[in-house]
Amino acid sequence: MHTLSAAGLVLEPLCERHAALMWPLLSDARLHIHLDESAPASLDALQQRYRRWEAHRVSPDGQAHWLNWVMRVQDHAVGWLQATVQQDGSAWVAYVVGTAHQGQGLARRGVQALLDHLRRDHRCTRALAQVEAANGPSIALLQALGFEPMAVAPHPLTPTERVYERRLESPHA
Ligand SMILES: CC(C)(COP(=O)(O)OP(=O)(O)OC[C@H]1O[C@@H](n2cnc3c(N)ncnc32)[C@H](O)[C@@H]1OP(=O)(O)O)[C@@H](O)C(=O)NCCC(=O)NCCS
Fold first, then answer.
1. pLDDT greater at residue 38 or residue 118
2. Atom 21, ligand 1: residue with shortest CA distance
3. Closest C-alpha to 14, from 30, 142, 105, 25
4. How confident is the model over 74-90, as pLDDT tens digits?
5. Secondary structure percentages of the chain, helix, strand, coil, to 5
6. CA 65 to CA 76: how far, in whole Å?
7. C-beta 103 within 6 A of ligand 1
8. Residue 95 belongs to what domain range?
9. Per-residue pLDDT for 57 more than 80?
10. Position 172 in a domain
11. Closest CA to 90 of 154, 149, 144
12. What pLDDT is stored for residue 117 in this prediction?
C-alpha cells in the first residue's frame, strides 16, 4: 500500500499509530447510527483493531485484499476509507468523515481518489457499497460519484439495506 493524494487531502495507509488521531473522531456515536460497527469502546480497543488490520491486509483464504486509509488534511485526521478488493475485479468501499468535517466535499474527493487507485493499481472494474436506505448523506455521496442502486444484490440483504454499484471504466473513473 502507498500514500494517495487528492486535492488538499492525503490518504495514508492506516496503521496502529493512527488510533490516537482517529479516536476523538470515531468516539462520536452520531457517526455510527447507520454503521454495522459501534463506536470503539476505548483507545486501547481501537489500537488493537488497527494493529490487526495492519497485520492482515489479505483475507485468511488469500482471496481478498483488506485496505484501509486515514484521510488527512494537513495534520488533522478527518476520516477513514476502506476497500475490500476481490479477485473478480470488484471492490467494496466504505467511508467515514468526522462530524466536524462533513459537508466540505472531503468524502467525495477521498472516495474518488480511492476509486482511481482501485482501477489503476488493482485493475478493479467495479465498485460496490452497501448502505442503509435511511442513510441520506451516504446515498447522496454515492449518487454524486455516479453509483447506481443494484436491482439484485450479490448477497442477501435485510429489508433496509441497499447495494450501490459503479463501473470503473465509466467516464466518471
Ligand atoms: C456519508 C459521509 C461520508 C459524507 O461525507 P461528507 O464529507 O460530508 O460528504 P461530501 O461533503 O463529500 O458530500 C458528497 C455529496 O453528498 C452530498 N451530501 C453529503 N451530506 C449530505 C446530507 N447530509 N444531505 C444531503 N446531501 C449530502 C453533498 O451535497 C455532495 O453532493 P454534491 O457534490 O453533488 O454537492 C458522512 O456523512 C459520514 O461519515 N457519515 C457517517 C458514516 C457513514 O454513514 N458512512 C457510510 C456508511 S455506508
1. 118
2. 137
3. 25
4. 989 999 999 999 999 99
5. 35, 30, 35
6. 27
7. yes
8. 4-167
9. yes
10. no
11. 154
12. 95
Q: What is the pLDDT of residue 33?
A: 87
Q: What confidence category does residue 35 fall into, taking pLDDT thresholds of 50, 70 and 90?
A: confident
CATH number at residue 138: 3.40.630.30
Rounded Cα–Cα distance for residues 44 and 148 (Å): 38
Is the beta carbon of 96 within 6 A of some atom in ligand 1?
A: yes
Q: Is the CB of 106 under 6 A from ligand 1?
A: yes
Task: Let me know if residue 141 belongs to a domain.
Answer: yes
Neighbours of 28 (CB within 10 A): 13
74 domain residue, yes or no:
yes
Counted residue by residue, the chain has a size of: 173
Cα–Cα distance, 38 to 34 (Å, whole number): 9
> CA-CA distance, 173 to 153, in Å (whole number)?
22
Q: Residue 170 pLDDT > 60, yes or no?
A: no
Map grid coordinates 429489508 to a residue: 159
Give the bridge partners for 6, in sequence order. 9
